[in-house]
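Figure caption, in words: inputs first, then the predicted bound structure.
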Amino acid sequence: MKILGISAHYHDSAAALVADGVPVCAAQEERLSRRKGDATFPVRAIEWCLDQADIDPADLDAVVFYERSMLKFDRILTCALRGFPRSWRSFPAAIKNSLGEKVWARGIISSHLGVQKGKILFTDHHASHAAAAFLTAPTRRAAIMTADGVGEWATLTVGHGERRPNGGTDLTLLREVRFPHSLGLLYSAFTAYLGFTVNEDEYKVMGLAAYGRPNMADRVRRLIHPTPDGAFAIVPDYFEYHTTGERSYSDKFVELFGPERSPYDPIDLASAEGQRFADCAASIQRVLEDTLVDLARQLRRETGLTDLCFGGGVALNGVANARVLAESGFERVFVPPAPGDAGCALGAALYADRVYFGNPDRDVPDHPFWGPTVSGDELARAAREDGLPVDEVDDPTLVERVADDLAAGRVVGWMEGACEFGPRALGHRSLLAAPHAHAMRDRLNRDIKCREEFRPFAPVVPAEAADRFFDLPSGGARLARFMSGVFPVRPEWRPRLAAVTHVDGSARVQVLEREMAPRLHALLEAYGHRTGIPVLLNTSFNVAGEPIVAAALEGYSTFRRSGIDTLVAGRAVVTKRVAPASERPEEGATCASRNAAGSSAA
Ligand SMILES: [Fe+2]
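Bound structure (fe (ii) ion present):
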């Protein structure tokens, strides 16, 4: 049975194909359209999935949309009416969006793909999140928690799943918290207040939190309080996301926390104002963590289960995930590589396969590499046409060569096989560098990534060496498989892992098992032989404002436009000619000039 899952029209569209119960491929539309966070109907991703499997739309047994669009429309309409007359200005935009896209999902899918309407199914948004978390995890029985901004009405669900010995699958969601009561939207309101982009920059709030003290947590708790059933409720007066849609927080919110930050002002952590924003970030972060820990602890007591599968956009918060693991009583916490809405494409397809059609349980390969593959030949061709030196070598030679480059302080663009499904580079589309010095972090921020200085980089370490450098609790390595947890760097190693240690001594470490990415694992070992520290800085292969690269030519273009020194794909290794000092860009000019070029093109 071949099932196509689709998520679209909100944020980060995606498509995924499941055949005979196992994923064949999955991709976010942005990786193919090259528009970051592309939310349009994922025509390219669908086409690519069908090409990969060498099938026509007519061969599909079902197409599953990741949420019930009529229910979502119902919420938008209801909230607009409740908020009237304050909502009247935003209502036409909301309704146009819904009428134009969401409500008519069946018609859009049918007209794009030419499949019969009877083959088009819908899952609940949070059932898609739950399936993406539970049905991809190597566990047979687990509690399930999902948390995001909002789906149709639900914003958080708890339940449990079981893959039964007879091959059947049980996936039960016991309770839900409904809009406007939402942890995701609460966090997003602070994201907006702190001058960042909602639905995109929530992780910046988490990064900024490490610079602050949670001394406003009591104030945050005035916005959200526990309810007798063990859940929570927000106090609507502090927000506007449920009424106007123009701003997510209200004047009352600003009275409580002070003036908001302008997105155009840099955050100066040395100033009182900058510190207030960091304290504010620390405070919302603390309240989010406390709330999730309470919910998970209660779910642990209620289900008696030892594993938790956690999905939804809120599960991207690695600091909160680590506290859930440490404090809820669950022994293992599984967060999928794509816990957000893109992952719902795969979740919806798996849900339809196991629950709707009742197909037998199958193990799902435990890795994130479901996207387009990279071609070393394509890279070699492009570089040669450009007159750059290319070496085509076997794997052992390539690993030694790249380890030499890294040990010499060069930044390496590392492309291998299929690209990651989900927001994080986990070793197939990564920028790698030496993790030892602050100077490397600053160089990457300044010359390549063009981003705020408070943003930390993440390390990758072989599983065998992880405990030596990082203070991982029991179950920590699992959470770190897809970079879903933030853990302390051991104090004695912090000075030598300065580029990947956050200001509070933590790191969002990826713990790499050899079988998940053997060539990167070998590279880490080779680097360890040279430096005594088998740890590399691993950040996503993209520059600010662009999606992670997918094809070789995108990697090559990024390499040419930025301060990356060496580029690898397949057997090909490309190096830049070192320009004479007089021709090199001035320090700091790389990002500035690129940003200027970007804004004039936009
Ligand atoms: Fe969601």
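The longest strand covers residues 154-163.
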